[in-house]
Specification:
Blueprint (H helix, E strand, L loop, with lengths): L1 H22 L4 H11 L5 H16 L5 H18 L6 H9 L5 H7 L5 H11 L15
Helix pairs in contact: 1-3, 1-4, 3-4, 3-5, 3-6, 4-7, 5-7
């Protein structure tokens, strides 16, 4: 039974990556590069962590109008994923994307957050995630 639960979780995370790429197609070369590095398609957490690292760099360069537009698109894409049903979005966005942002980047990100992604950031920061990421099969 646990194997089936893991397969469902993996499929849900794949849906998160698909939703992200549909909302932010310019990220595809990054995913392809990660696949080459990993020898296979990377998991959603890897993709979202990479996006978080890119976002942190862009947040450090806010004076550039081009970066401003990129940041708006990134946060819109994260919001699309955060609202995607059946994609384990809380866990994927929190432990992938948000975890990659340092405290300064998180402060700079606040104006870009949308409703659901803001809820996820707040839950991550207060350690009050709803347990969506808990795996009943851990340790067995």
């Amino acid at each position: 039974m646990c194997h089936g639960a893991r397969d469902e979780r993996s499929a849900a995370r794949d849906r998160a990556v698909v939703a992200l790429l549909e909302a932010l197609p310019e990220l595809l070369p990054v995913v392809v590069a990660l696949a080459e590095d990993y020898g296979d398609l990377p998991g959603a957490h890897v993709v979202f962590r990479e996006l978080g690292e890119i976002t942190a760099l862009l947040l450090g360069r806010l004076r550039d109008e081009e970066h401003e537009e990129q940041l708006e698109r990134i946060f819109e894409a994260v919001e699309v994923v955060a609202r995607t049903p059946g994609a384990e979005t809380t866990e994927t966005v929190a432990y992938g994307f948000v975890a990659a942002l340092d405290p300064r980047a998180l402060d700079l990100a606040v104006p870009y957050l949308h409703e659901e992604s803001e809820r996820i950031v707040e839950a991550y920061l207060t350690r009050s995630l709803d347990g969506e990421g808990d795996d009943a099969c851990d340790g067995r």
